[in-house]
Structures are given as structure tokens and as C-alpha cells.
């Protein structure tokens, strides 16, 4: 931590409340594949789909304005970024310089097209690291991807379920791409633009792949099953960004441009596959330049269990990960880096009665962090970089008004650094009112046979029992 | 007090054509008395409208109060003007018996007349108080009490009535804790409950006055991002790629559905 605190920032309930109202956040979103194929010798097997980043939130513009206000020129306030593997000793040569471009949805987008991992790197897993800074040299921070598994080449053998990290589970995210004659330049990624599926040469989207039960309806609602995706299963692909879905399709193994209809083994990373429409099983998901269309396969004369496909209907499937960092510099005056960014991976409640404790599990914790419940700071204890503990504030601090105690109160959780930097976390915390202990046992079935009088008697009884204090007042 | 009196000043102007001001003001002492009564009445009116259902048998209705006030001026001119308040007309009989009263009004009242008016006012007041007491009795009978408790005072009756109405409203609204507390307790996983430390004693102005006191608050958290992702999947809209073979068959229709040509222009 090398922040230089120029003067103590004003962090009080009002300031945090204002932050919570407007959320002038800066969000960094990193999308990448779960596995990367190793490059041998002089090979350069670029990661596919290319790791990409999205910067969103009004905080970026605010920060730039802030920098300009402090006297920096336009040229010093541009955002720049480099992406590299996490071990390389800071040599810029191994980093990919990102070109950030602003999209129509105000997000900034960049992708690292030429990253690869050489066989001299002996690790089984690695992370990508994104370094962001302003062109004037001011660092924003470093952001890490999730772990990426290194593989030598796609598995050709029947995949075993034991090799869980190479299998694709229902509900996980995948990317699909198509490469004509194995040419990198011809790679197109399944994506969604303006509500329609497209084959984009520029951008890719992550899709949630789910196993779909047979009793699917036409209303976009499907019974989702657990388990690994196997060939022959009916699946649905839903774009994680836009929520646009393809109709239910049967996933088929592809071998030498044939869809093989009688294979039921688990789908594995980087396998070639085809998607046969469930409602019309001659038709397959296919690209034609940038368009996504249906392609009619022709039956194989020699083998009944195979169908002949075209180039555009053979897809490569790969699992993807996404990681999101959201923070706000709106309350801080320090110009230091925002990293290391704390990450909460799990929460645990303990205690009860008069004091309840919330334990945070995660990474990059430190004694400079405090947990905030909405606009209320909780008493926070640092245990280790992976564990923090805090006292759950009493619900009455959120409700100036008595009546709100009768309704659930939900507040966002955030971590505040001592200098006022806010790390927003994806969790919210809820206080739900609980009524008194149940009344003394009543005759079983009483409520079914109860006529009006006994019901009223019960209500009377309940009222006097629970409102004993009212009778004591006079 | 001004606002309370307002309706009666309206009544004054309404009744002025029927008897002279002089007459009205001669009865000054009783009128002052009446004013305070009416003020009380106003408080009770709130109750009567709230629980009119239970109130029927006490014979005096909201209208009856007006009738009562009206009788003061009308009884002598019209014996039928009684809005069907049978007992009120009979009790006002001294007025009616005294037929030529209206002629003598311009003169100073005699001692006997004053006494008569005084008596009548007392009777009305007694009757009014009786009706209020009846109403309180009616209300009291609807409020649950502890078995050993002595008769509730008026203020306690009102206080408990407020509490009880709140309690019933909550009972109707929520899926009551009263009906099935046992199954509730069985089905729910162990909760971390925090007791709240508010020690203030409840007051009738609290919106939750009369509701069972809370045992505390159970604590939980939600991964909002996960929730959002699940929501996207749940509300997914299906987009079906076009089948090129069918394109020439139903060309324009399919185009509009999947890729409006106008999009390209704009």
C-alpha cells in the first residue's frame, strides 16, 4: 500500500448515502476462456476467444473530469491498459497493449488478441493480469482474471466425468467460435447484437449452456437440469449479457465435418460440435458471413448415424469465466492505486441473540478495510488476507422510523478503504422481522373444525397474550 | 377549538330564519355548556363512525346527534320534526306542551322558563352521556380482556381498540403467525436471529401499536449478481435463426421478424 494521504477524507453516513444513491462506480469486467492451449517451440497459439475487457459505469468519466480539473491536459487523461500473464516479470514485451474503444452503450471495450502461453512456462494454471492507467502515468490498478487451466491439446479420447474441469457443466458459461479451414483470421464468434445472434469477427459473448428437459414449453421457460453436458443432450444457449436465447438444440459431436448422431459422451473443452434444432432435426446452427442461419444437413449415404455438415455449422466450444471489479473513487482524494482489490468469495453468519457476527472469506483483505452495511460502518476486525470479521449493526440504525422494523430491510454490503475508496461487493444483507415464539400448543386440527366463535376466541387469546404489555399500562 | 366550532356556526346560520338571535343568546349558559359537550361529541363521533356496526343497538346514530341539536329550535314549531328519535321527542314534551312559547320569546324569560330550559338541557346532557357510555360498553364488549381484569376505563378501551384494530388488520394482511405457528417452525432452516435493542415502550401513536412485539430480526444475505444472472436466464427471449430455404417463400415477413431492413438504413 503506497497511498499518500494528502488529508483525511470525509467519510460519514451522509457521504456514503450519497454514494449509494448515485453509484458513481467504475467497473472492470474481464471475460476469458477457462482453458488455454499451450504453444510449443516457435508456435503462437493465441488464446481463443481472446480475453476481453469492458469498462463501464459513470465513475470513469468523473475520474477523467477530476484529472482535468487538477490541471492535466486531455492527452494525459486517456485510459490505457496492458494485459499479460501473471508471472512475467513486468516486461512490456510480453504484454498486450489494449486499444480501448468506446461502444454505443458507453462501455469501453478492448480485447487481447495475441496472448499465448509458451511451453517454457511449466505452470498448470495461470491468471491474466490487466493493468490500467491514465496516459499521464497515473495508475488505476491491476485486475486479475480467474485461474486458467493450461492444456496441451483438446482431448480426443472419450472424456471421463472425473476430469471435471475439462467437462462442461449445465449452467456454466461457454463461448462458441467457428474457424474456416483452421485459419485464425477467419475466426468468427457467436455473439448477440441488437437482439439478434450474429457471427462477429470482433467480439464474443458468453452463453449460459443449460441442459433442458423434454417437457420444454414454447414460452421461453425450460426445466433446467443439473449435470454435465453430453452429446445428444438438448441444450439451450442464453446470452449472459443480453438475455437472448437460441431455441432448444441437440448438441452433436463433429468428426471430419460430419455430425455424429450416436455419440453420448461428455462434451469436452475445445471440442468441435454442432447444434441440431430440436424442432426440425435436419437443421443445424450455422453462420453465413456475419449472419446466423439454419443449415440443412444432408444424410450420409453410407452411415445412417451421420449427417454431412458444412464449414459454417461446425463450432468449437470452450468454457468461459468472467470476473467483475466495481469500485468508486468518489469519496477519496488519494491518487494511489486501487489495487489490490479485495474479493469476497463467501459469507458466514455466526452468533445471534444480542450480537451477530458476519465473517467474510476472500482475498486481498487488510486492516485498512472496513465493512459497511448500507451507510453504516460495522465494527470490523482483520484476521488474515483471506478472512475478516465484523459485527452486524443493529437494524434500528437503518430505520429512523419505528414502522420499518416491521418490514424486511435490505442494505448493500461494501468495503471501504481508510482513504475513502469504496469497493462495492455483489452481496446485499437483509434483516427480516421475526414474530414472537409460537403460542402454546393448541388442539390438533382445531383450526379446521373451528367455527366463527372459537376463531374469535383464539384471536382474542392471541391478542391478549401478545399484547400483555398494553394491559399493564394503566 | 375553532375548527371544532365551525360546523355549529354553520348550524346557526341554517337555523336563524326559524328563530331570532335574541332567543338563541338568552340561553347563554346552557349554550356554553353545549359547546363543550359538542366538543366531546366530536371525539366520540370518530368512534361511532368506526364501529357503527356494533353501535346500532344504542339507538343514537350520527344523525341522531344532529336531530338532538335541531330539536332545541324546532320542537315547538313542529312536533313531527324528530327524525324518528322516539325517546327524544317524549323527553322534550315540556316544550311542546307549552304551545304559546314562541309568542312570549320576545319578552324576558320568566324564572320558570329558565328552569325548564335548564332542566331540558340537563336531560339532553344526561342522555348524551348515557349514549356515549352505551357506546363505550359496546366497544368494550368487542375488545378482548384478561379474565381477571376489572372493567376497562374509557381511555383504556380506546387505546386497546386501536391496538386491536391494528392487530386484526395485520392478521388479515399477513399470513398470520396465529394460524399455523408449528409448521412454520418446522419447515424453516435454522436462522440467525438478532434481538433488537430498542427499549422504548410502545405508544398508541406507533403504527405497529397492538401488533405482537417482534422477537427480533433474522439475518441473511443475497448474491445480487448471481440473482441477476439467474433472472436473465429465466426471462430469456428466444431468437430463431432464419431458414434460408424458406426465405423466398415468405420473404418479407421473415425479414421483419429477424432483421428489419430499416435497421440497416438507420
Provide an overview of this structure.
The complex is a heterodimer of chains A (474) and B (266). With 474 residues, chain A is mainly beta. Chain A is built from 5 helices and 35 strands. Chain A has helices at 13-22, 59-69, 446-449, 452-466, 468-471; strands at 26-33, 35-39, 52-56, 79-85, 96-98, 101-102, 108-111, 117-118, 125-126, 128-134, 139-144, 148-151, 172-178, 188-193, 196-200, 207-212, 224-225, 234-239, 244-245, 249-255, 258-260, 272-277, 283-288, 291-296, 298-299, 306-308, 315-328, 343-352, 355-363, 369-373, 376-377, 380-384, 387-391, 409-417, 422-435. Chain A has a 6-stranded antiparallel beta barrel with strand order 13-16-18-20-22-27. Chain B is elongated and about 110 Å long. Mean pLDDT of chain B is 61; it is low at 1-99, 176-189 and 250-266. Chains A and B meet through strand 19, strand 23, strand 24, strand 28 and strand 29 of A and helix 10, helix 11, strand 1, strand 2 and helix 12 of B.
**Average of the residue pLDDT scores of chain A:** 85
Quickly give the structural class of chain A: mainly beta
Termini separation of chain A comes to 63 Å
Radius of gyration of chain A: 28 Å
Give a count of the beta strands of chain B, DSSP E runs of length 2 or more: 3
**Count of β-strands of chain A:** 35
What percent of residues of chain A adopt helix (DSSP H or I)?
under 10%
User: What is the radius of gyration of chain B computed over CA atoms, rounded to a whole number of angstroms?
Assistant: 34 Å
Number of helices of chain B: 15
Going across the major beta sheet of chain B, what is the strand order? 1-2
Average of pLDDT of chain B: 61
Could you state the order of secondary-structure elements of chain B as H and E? Answer: HHHHHHHHHHHEEHEHHH
Global morphology of chain A? globular
Strand content of chain B: 5-15%
Q: Roughly how much helix do the residues of chain B carry, as a percent range?
A: 55-70%
| Beta-strand fraction estimate of chain A | 35-45%
Give the largest interface pair and sizes.
A-B, 81 and 70 residues
Amino acid at each position: 500500500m503506497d497511498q499518500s494521504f494528502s488529508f483525511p477524507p470525509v467519510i460519514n453516513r451522509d457521504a456514503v448515502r450519497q454514494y449509494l444513491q448515485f453509484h458513481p462506480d467504475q467497473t472492470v469486467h474481464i471475460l476469458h476462456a477457462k482453458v488455454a492451449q499451450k504453444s510449443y517451440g516457435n508456435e503462437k497459439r493465441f488464446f481463443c476467444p481472446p480475453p476481453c475487457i469492458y469498462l463501464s459505469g459513470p465513475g470513469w468519466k468523473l475520474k477523467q473530469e477530476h484529472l482535468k480539473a487538477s490541471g492535466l491536459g486531455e492527452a494525459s487523461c486517456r485510459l490505457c491498459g496492458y494485459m499479460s500473464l501473471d508471472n512475467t516479470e513486468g516486461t512490456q514485451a510480453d504484454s498486450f497493449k489494449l486499444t480501448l474503444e468506446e461502444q454505443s452503450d458507453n462501455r469501453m471495450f478492448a480485447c487481447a488478441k495475441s496472448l499465448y502461453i509458451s511451453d517454457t512456462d511449466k505452470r498448470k494454471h495461470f491468471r491474466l493480469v490487466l493493468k490500467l492507467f491514465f496516459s499521464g502515468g497515473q495508475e488505476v490498478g491491476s485486475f486479475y482474471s480467474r485461474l486458467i487451466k493450461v492444456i496441451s491439446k483438446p482431448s480426443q479420447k472419450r472424456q471421463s466425468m472425473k476430469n471435471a474441469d475439462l467437462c462442461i457443466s449445465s449452467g456454466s458459461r461457454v463461448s462458441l467460435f467457428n474457424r474456416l479451414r483452421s485459419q485464425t483470421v477467419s475466426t468468427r464468434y457467436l455473439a448477440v447484437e441488437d437482439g439478434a445472434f450474429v457471427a462477429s469477427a470482433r467480439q464474443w459473448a458468453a452463453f449460459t449452456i443449460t441442459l433442458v428437459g423434454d417437457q420444454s414449453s414454447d414460452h421461453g421457460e425450460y426445466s433446467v437440469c443439473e449435470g454435465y453436458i453430453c452429446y445428444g443432450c438438448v441444450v439451450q444457449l442464453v446470452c449472459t449479457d443480453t438475455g437472448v436465447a437460441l431455441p432448444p438444440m441437440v448438441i452433436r459431436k463433429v468428426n471430419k465435418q460430419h455430425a455424429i448422431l450416436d455419440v453420448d459422451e461428455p462434451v469436452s473443452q475445445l471440442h468441435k460440435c454442432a447444434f441440431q434444432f430440436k424442432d426440425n432435426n435436419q437443421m443445424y446452427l450455422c453462420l453465413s458471413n456475419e449472419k446466423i442461419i439454419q443449415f440443412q444437413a444432408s444424410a450420409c449415404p453410407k452411415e445412417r448415424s451421420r449427417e454431412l455438415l458444412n464449414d459454417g455449422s461446425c463450432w468449437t466450444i470452450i468454457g468461459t469465466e468472467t470476473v467483475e471489479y466495481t469500485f468508486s473513487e468518489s469519496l477519496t482524494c488519494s491518487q494511489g492505486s486501487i489495487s489490490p482489490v479485495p474479493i469476497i468469495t463467501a459469507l458466514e453468519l455466526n452468533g445471534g441473540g444480542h450480537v451477530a457476527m458476519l465473517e467474510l472469506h476472500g482475498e486481498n483483505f487488510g486492516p485498512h478495510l472496513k465493512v459497511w452495511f448500507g451507510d453504516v460502518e460495522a465494527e470490523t476486525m482483520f484476521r488474515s488476507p483471506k478472512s475478516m470479521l465484523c459485527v452486524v449493526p443493529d437494524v434500528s440504525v437503518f430505520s429512523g422510523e419505528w414502522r420499518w422494523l416491521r418490514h424486511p430491510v435490505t442494505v448493500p454490503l461494501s468495503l471501504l478503504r481508510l482513504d475513502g475508496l469504496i469497493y462495492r461487493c455483489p452481496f446485499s444483507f437483509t434483516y427480516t422481522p421475526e414474530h414472537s415464539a409460537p403460542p402454546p400448543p393448541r388442539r390438533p386440527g382445531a383450526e379446521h373444525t373451528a367455527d366463527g366463535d372459537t376463531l374469535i376466541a383464539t384471536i382474542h387469546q392471541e391478542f391478549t397474550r401478545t399484547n400483555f404489555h398494553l394491559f399493564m399500562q394503566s | 377549538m375553532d375548527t371544532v366550532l365551525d360546523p355549529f356556526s354553520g348550524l346557526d346560520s341554517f337555523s336563524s330564519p326559524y328563530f331570532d338571535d335574541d332567543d338563541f343568546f338568552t340561553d347563554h349558559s346552557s349554550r356554553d355548556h353545549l359547546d363543550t359537550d359538542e366538543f366531546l361529541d366530536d371525539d366520540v363521533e370518530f368512534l361511532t363512525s368506526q364501529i357503527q356496526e356494533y353501535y346500532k343497538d344504542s339507538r343514537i346514530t350520527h344523525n341522531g346527534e344532529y336531530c338532538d341539536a335541531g330539536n332545541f329550535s324546532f320542537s315547538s314549531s313542529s312536533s313531527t320534526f324528530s327524525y324518528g328519535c322516539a325517546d327524544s321527542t317524549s323527553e322534550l314534551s315540556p316544550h311542546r306542551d307549552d304551545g304559546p312559547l314562541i309568542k312570549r320569546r320576545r319578552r324576558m324569560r320568566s324564572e320558570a322558563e329558565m328552569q325548564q330550559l335548564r332542566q331540558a338541557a340537563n336531560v339532553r346532557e344526561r342522555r348524551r352521556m348515557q349514549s356515549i357510555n352505551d357506546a363505550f360498553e359496546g366497544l368494550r364488549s368487542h375488545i378482548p380482556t384478561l379474565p381477571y381484569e376489572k372493567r376497562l376505563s374509557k381511555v383504556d378501551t380506546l387505546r386497546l381498540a386501536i391496538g386491536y384494530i391494528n392487530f386484526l388488520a395485520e392478521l388479515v394482511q399477513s399470513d398470520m403467525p396465529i394460524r399455523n405457528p408449528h409448521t412454520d417452525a418446522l419447515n424453516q432452516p435454522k436462522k440467525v436471529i438478532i434481538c433488537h435493542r430498542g427499549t422504548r415502550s410502545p405508544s398508541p401513536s406507533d403504527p405497529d401499536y397492538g401488533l405482537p412485539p417482534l422477537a427480533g430480526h433474522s439475518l441473511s444475505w443475497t448474491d445480487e449478481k448471481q440473482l441477476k444472472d439467474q433472472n436473465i436466464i429465466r426471462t430469456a427471449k428466444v431468437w430463431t435463426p432464419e431458414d434460408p430455404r424458406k426465405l423466398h417463400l415468405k420473404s418479407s415477413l421473415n425479414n421483419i421478424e429477424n432483421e428489419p431492413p430499416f435497421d440497416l438504413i438507420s
